Amino acid sequence: MSFAVRNDLRGWRAVDGPDDLLGDEHYSEEQPELPVSIGASEVDAERDRRIDAGVMFQGVMYQSRATDRENIAGAAQLGFMAVVAGAQPGDLRWSNPGEDYAWIATDNSLVRMDAQTVVAFGKVAAERKQMLVFAGRDLKDSSPIPVDYADDKWWP
Q: Which end of the chain has fewer CB within 10 Å, C or N?
């Protein structure tokens, strides 16, 4: 196991113990505290984790991974077309006259939705992703990027 030593002329270096010291070096078993530098890739990873972590809509959590977002956007598009074609609020059979339209929540429950609700769901999901993208951009524009960049206080 190596330990850190400080030499005022040469900076920090690793040694195996006090017997490896040279001249004016000071032995310490503590590692030097190096400045932490957060890069854009760490912020991007946290942003992506949050985008994929789910989206809350009307008090219910839904999955929001890439395929989920694709499905939500497609359903919202179908819902919008149904509204334009005359689907009425409260009509749960707007997509298929034989059964109520429902979306599966993260707790595996079925949440019935009319076309207007599906459109609103799609809007909330898209807005959530956009807010996270812009929060990540703001963090990456910081100089330096805060060490606690993953803290909820930086994210919507």
A: N
